[in-house]
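Continuing from the previous page of notes. For each protein in this section, the sequence appears first, followed by its structure tokens. Read the first protein now.
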Amino acid sequence: MQVTNQTGDLHEVPTEGGKTNYLLPFILITSLFFLWGMAHNLDSILIPHLKKACELNNRQSTLIDTSVFFAYFIMAIPAGMLIKRFGYKNSIITGLLVFAAGAFLFVPAANSRTYELFLFALFVIGCGLTILETSANPYAAILGPAESSSKRLNLAASFNGLAAMVAPIVGSLFILSGKNHTPAQMAAMPEAEKATYLLGEAAAVKMPYIILGSVLVLVAIIFYFMHLPSMKPQHTEAEIKPGFFSVLKFRHLSWAVVAQFFYVGAQVCITSFFIRIAQQGAHLDEKTAGYYLGVYGFLFMAGRFIGTFFLKFVKDYVLLSIYCGASIILCLLAIYGTGIVVIYALGGIGFFMSIMFPTIFSLGLVGLKSNTETGSSWLVMSIVGGAILPYGMGTLIDMKHDDIQSGYIIPLLCFVIILSFGLYGHKVKNVNQIVNG
């Protein structure tokens, strides 16, 4: 039996037989992982596409990532406050509607071929994603026994991996045209023909984002009419309740924030320049490179499911460390390899990166209890790494005269830092010295 509270969420009340049924809520939450995975992985298509349609250099094109991930930094604290005030359910609905508004803004951006409007639309999408992730990640983690939180979060995140495969295929089919012109050809093209070509390229994004926005509105309506159990963690009067900044005195949380910053930065760096490195290093055409990005997404998804299985037998921090070590080796191969080997190396990295985000997230929340929402906000804020590091990578590539492979030194360094978290940064220390912030 379940009883609604004033925010529209539900108090956790045992059903007949003494158990609460978490299956349907978990399925609904898992669908959100797929939806925000679609948004993030379409960005990997948008970067080369808008670079062409809006005539940008590498550094300018990475502002696509900056717009989305900077929103995480700006919105993480308000998102945490929103959850505390209105509950998980209403926060999720709000996130879906903000996400949809950003998707619909792609229409006027494409009609005017205004890069700044595209960036604003992506920032709005990022705001919606922040609310969703701040709500759904901890909700999935605590929607059941504490000892299985890593497995549960990795299972939900596996459908984020499914989106990593589906989005590049959808983007390659409906956004990428396969038409590429050299700078000399563009300069020789009559102005009217050039304008028509560029507007046509920009317009290709409209239909996919209209469909995405419509789906988001539909899902928001479903959530509105569904009942979700309230999963606020139980705590005692004596429990330590540090403030927003004091919570970082939980040493493992502060380490997790750093590790998550560099993980998201590494993932976004790798996918943002995947199509470009496939064209430059393996001499693939644009559409074929996009399909290979879909293969990368398949390996990412497979890594999530296989990693979730391994977590039944291997400690989460041990598996994280093993996967980081493999990613470091493959990143070196991507930097110094040639031809199709580079693409295979990046695909392998996709497999081994797969469990990192949810594993870091769940390790960072261990033992936080009533501070889970605050810790979640910090972990979501750390996603700003996806705004900063790709911009640095694009700048480095431009400095190296468009040598894409040289830029992959940045994700390599990121994996070294994440490995440090897996080896010793995850350890939970005594936090009795923490006082109210």
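Done with the first. The second protein uses the same format. Note its length before scrolling.
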Amino acid sequence: MTTRIVVVGAALFDDGDGGHGGRLLAARRSAPPELAGRWELPGGKVEPGERPDAALVRELHEELGVDAETVARVPGEWPLKPPYVLQVWTARLLPGSPRPRPLQDHDELRWLAPADIWTVDWLDPDVPAVRETLALLDAGAR
């Protein structure tokens, strides 16, 4: 049996006052070639012995240069290319954090208002994760 590897994604919101109506950060892949040009929730692989929420904070710092904290796990888990699975957390920037910028594996970032979420070409595995995140927000659980 193959051990599954968890990839964590951040539903990173920028809503100023902590209320609803915030914008979701989307990151456009620049690598590998088969994913380049498509959009995803930023994040990355959990290292052996690392907690998924800690991995996400580390990945956001490495990929985007930000200081963030996880808020809540989004229910569900989505299959990626075996043996990888995607788990998502809502997250927010810490006060005083630098603005996100694409440092690794991405060439563009966009803050998407709720009405604009589906204007980018999301990677297929991210689509159900984004839908679940939006459902969670609609239910008022952020």
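What the second structure shows: Confidence is low (pLDDT under 50) at residues 16-20. Residues 21 and 37 are 27 Å apart (CA to CA). We return to this in next week's lecture.
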